[in-house]
Amino acid sequence: MTNISQPNPTFIPHSRPTLGAAEIKAVSAVIESGHIAEGSVVQEFESTFAQRLGVKHAVAVGSGTAALHLSLLALGIGPADEVIMPSYVCTALLNAVCYVKASPVFAEINPVTFNIDPTDVKKRLTRRTKAIIVPHLFGLAADLNGLSGLDVPIIEDCAQAVGGQLDNKPLGSFGDVAIFSFYATKVMTCGEGGMVVSDSKEFADRISDLKSYDNRDNYKLRFNYKMTDIHAAVGLTQLDRLDNFVQRRRVVAQRYFDAFSFAGVTLPSDDPDHIYFRYVVSLKTESQTMIRHLLKKGVGCARPIHKPLHQCLNLDGYPITDNAWETSISVPIYPSLSDTEVQKIIDAFSESIN
């Protein structure tokens, strides 16, 4: 008889979606309707999302990467152009820029916030710069004021920051365009999915045209980047729960602040608008040893960025990013963590740091 390995019920994963009866009911209703592809539920998700952000247009797509790819195309960015982005970010940004055959230009980060450094961005501007991708990393708003007045389109990357704010305005409502990701472990999820938002109808129409190739009288290169009604049903339910998700993240973050303040480590910014998609702690030494210790104690921690983009391309000259990658550790933080699990994480971290 073959033994089937079962998950360890006491292990706390680094990330976990928060799903329940409401999502099951919403998906069941779509399946019962018989219309499971892109339809009226996607349209409702788009309009509800745009209203939540206070923007005029939102276009749902199949992933956050698709949202960024289409945004670059809609901005007319191609092989002769440069796009600036932080190196300390996931490879989706690099992939999207490479999809359009533009040249990626990496910028350093602020060592305190981990967000892109406007001063370093300005040093890397050239006549070929056609866009700046600005992630609000780990749920903390980037310094958009420091990037104002550059006469270059700003793409807000809100993949980790839906529900966040800056100056009492929702993140995603500042840039020329903003993109969102609804992957399984993001702040809110559709399983897979993304969104492009803009106040420009012309821009939104270009995104809508590019995301679907079927039944068109004129041929041009288009994509199958649609969202389904099944995914949108989950998204609508999650959007309705978003404020509670953010509040729970902040409650857990405060418990970590209280517990780790004397641990001799550097804690995240305690900005009141931080939504703590990730709770990132900086150690005085390399983080991988600590990560292994915590795994043995049943707590799934990780480097918050798998590998900086400049390292992927074998480039050097990014010492702040390299240090952040070497010394930072992401501690589990998500709404479905129980108080008991939070205490286990605190105990394991405190024991491992001593």
Give short descriptive properties of this protein.
354 residues, alpha/beta, Aspartate Aminotransferase, domain 2, Aspartate Aminotransferase, domain 1, two-stranded antiparallel ribbon, globular
Description:
- The structure is a single chain.
- By secondary structure, this protein is α/β, with parallel strands linked by helices.
- The chain folds into 2 domains: 21-237, Aspartate Aminotransferase, domain 2, CATH 3.40.640; 242-353, Aspartate Aminotransferase, domain 1, CATH 3.90.1150.10.
- The protein is built from 11 helices and 11 strands.
- The chain is globular and about 65 Å long.
- The termini are far apart.
- Mean pLDDT is 96; it is low at 1-6.
Question: How are the elements arranged and paired?
Answer:
Elements: H1 21-33, H2 40-53, E1 57-61, H3 64-74, E2 82-86, H4 91-99, E3 103-107, H5 118-124, E4 129-135, E5 154-157, E6 165-166, E7 169-170, E8 177-181, E9 194-198, H6 201-210, H7 229-260, E10 279-282, H8 288-296, H9 309-312, H10 319-327, E11 328-331, H11 339-353
Parallel strand pairs: 2-3, 2-4, 4-5, 5-8
Antiparallel strand pairs: 1-9, 6-7, 8-9, 10-11
Helix pairs in contact: 1-7, 2-7, 3-4, 3-6, 7-11
Short account of what is shown:
Helix content is 38%, strand content 14%. The protein has 354 residues and is of the alpha/beta class. It has a 7-stranded mixed beta sheet with strand order 1-9-8-5-4-2-3, with helices on both faces. Strands 6-7 form a two-stranded antiparallel sheet.
